[in-house]
Design goal:
2 domains; Cathepsin D, subunit A, domain 1; four-stranded antiparallel sheet; globular; six-stranded mixed barrel; 476 residues; 27 strands; alpha+beta; binds 2-acetamido-2-deoxy-beta-D-glucopyranose
Length: 476
């Protein structure tokens, strides 16, 4: 395989055909990946002793951390082509909410990777990996390449080894024929190892019974340091990171043509999930993404700012309870750092407090919400009695039903957020708070506003399709 790839150094597509041809004959594939939210008891990063309220606070912390990460990643605007090596990104403490369970090798070995929708390389801690001198301790065994008959190392000449002419091999280098990496995340890391390929076992039917093996390229890390916040929890089961961004080594881009650029997810309502025996979410790829008739689906296009891995949507305006804010055209301009990012890994939506044209959209949204609820004579919760993470809270009034909704007006489609997904409810204090966070710069449409909404990414046409659906039914 490596020999053929060597003769066609630029033929990434051919290479993909070759690695897949002995596995599947069909043109396109459908499969899914189980993704476990942190608030599920099944999650390796589940915190048993948090209360419902503490969990809701944590969603806000994670969102702020992710905003910081995405903002930093979005500031890399100079590069002209994709190259993981150019992206020196921090991994923000707490910026993780989802864990993917992957089965790698023949016979498979189970690994748990934190899902990072804006990272590239997929990697896991691998033998020979000394606890103490080489890797972080993990409760599950380290991946053992020797025990997998389908494992091989990636050769330096392999098209997926980022060492080709004209690329900046910042994190990658050739060591005795092996495609080695020393991967840093800002000041954190490194994660060091050899790029490898092995088969990865995915669920390939909607009922969750059949499985399929696909070759993927991943990093087999034998030296990992300075990533304490991912690995240093007691009883840690995590062993690495699953990147899903738009760089060539991410899982999504590796499988792009086989899945015809399509993936989809559906966020199960957070409240329904309590008390936390929630089932995993399902990340669906390729043929497993099935759209209902177009009359039931709304669609808009996403834009990618050159050199970035983020999905920006063209947001024109926002309405609160059906009244539009009347924002000037171009307020959410991604090229000027004020774009709206679609990011399911951010739990709570973030609205900009300072766009490039100096608007505090967050404040305008809050004022509209205050107008609505003050107008209904609901009583605001004073600062000292409300959680510090959410700024606008009201006491419940028995029988009150006039809840405010929110609409994101995208080019070509309105995205409607039902009132029940607008607020965090605090039963103990008998009040609710608006689930929104204000931050400088970019805005983020996060998972809280994706509840019971199927979202489909269609890479070939650069579209995002969405329609309301009961996401609780989307599981195995
Ligand atoms: C929750 O558990 C963790 C570790 O098990 C511990 O460090 C932390 O102090 C606990 N928190 C509370 C509020 O009990
Ligand atoms: C795995 O294979 C390598 C090279 O073949 C060898 O040096 C090493 O001892 C093996 N490790 C185990 C655990 O068998
Ligand atoms: C890659 O590294 C391994 C040990 O880490 C070594 O045994 C092997 O010869 C190297 N080269 C190739 C092409 O695999
Ligand atoms: C899933 O993969 C298996 C093994 O390759 C295959 O036999 C089966 O037909 C596939 N099922 C679907 C629904 O594609
Ligand atoms: C969605 O389905 C679940 C499980 O069947 C059910 O409990 C829930 O009430 C449904 N949600 C809506 C909005 O109908």
């Amino acid at each position: 395989m490596a020999g053929i790839a060597q003769n066609f150094p630029g033929a990434v597509f051919l290479f993909l055909v070759i690695i897949f041809s002995n596995l599947v004959a069909s043109e396109s594939l459908g499969f899914s990946l189980r993704v476990i939210p942190a608030d599920s008891q099944e999650s390796p990063i589940y915190r048993h002793n948090l209360t419902h309220l503490e969990r809701m606070e944590k969603l806000s912390d994670i969102s702020m951390a992710r905003h910081q990460v995405l903002t930093l990643r979005s500031s890399h605007k100079k590069s002209s082509s994709w190259d993981d090596g150019k992206f020196v990104e921090p991994l923000e403490r707490q910026a993780y909410y989802y864990v993917a369970e992957m089965k790698i090798g023949t016979p498979f070995q189970r690994v748990y990777l934190v899902v990072d929708t804006s990272a590239g390389l997929v990697w896991t801690q691998c033998e020979p990996c000394d606890q103490g001198s080489g890797c972080y301790p993990q409760q599950t065994p380290y991946f053992e390449p020797n025990s997998s008959s389908s494992y091989s190392r990636l050769h330096c000449n392999d098209p997926l080894c980022p060492l080709r002419k004209g690329q900046d091999p910042k994190f990658f280098h050739c060591v005795s024929g092996n495609c080695s990496y020393t991967y840093y995340y800002g000041f954190e890391g490194p994660s060091m190892g050899i790029l490898s390929t092995d088969s990865c076992n995915f669920i390939n039917d909607t009922a969750g019974y059949n499985r399929i093996d696909l070759a993927i390229v991943f990093g087999c890390s034998t030296y990992v340091r300075n990533l304490d916040h991912i690995f240093l929890e007691e009883g840690n089961k995590l062993s690495g990171i699953l990147g899903l961004n738009l760089s060539p080594l991410s899982l999504y881009k590796q499988l792009y043509d086989k899945i015809q650029g399509k993936f989809s997810y559906c966020v199960v309502p957070f409240e329904e999930n309590f008390p936390f025996f929630i089932h995993a979410h399902t990340l669906r790829f390729g043929d497993q993404v099935v759209l209902p008739p177009s009359s039931e689906v709304s669609s808009t296009y996403y834009t990618i700012v050159k050199g970035e891995d983020l999905f920006y949507l063209d947001l024109l305006d926002i309405s609160i309870a059906g009244l539009s804010l009347g924002l000037p055209a171009g307020t959410f301009d991604a090229k000027r750092g004020s774009g709206l990012i679609l990011d399911s890994s951010t739990p709570v939506s973030v609205i900009s407090t300072k766009t490039w044209n100096n608007l505090n959209v967050y404040e305008l949204v809050m004022l509209a919400l205050m107008g609505h609820y003050d107008g209904d004579n609901l009583v605001r919760v004073p600062k000292k009695s409300r959680p510090e993470k959410y700024e606008l809270c009201y006491f419940n009034r028995p029988g009150f039903t006039h809840w405010a909704t929110m609409t994101y007006h995208f080019r070509g489609a309105d995205y409607f957020v039902d009132a029940k997904f607008m607020n965090v409810h605090y039963a103990q204090g008998n009040f609710f708070c608006i689930a929104l966070i204000g931050r400088d710069g970019a805005s983020i449409l996060g998972a809280f506003h994706m509840q019971d909404m199927r979202i489909v990414h269609e890479g070939y046409s650069k579209s995002i399709h969405f329609y309301p659906v009961n996401c609780s039914h989307d599981h195995f």
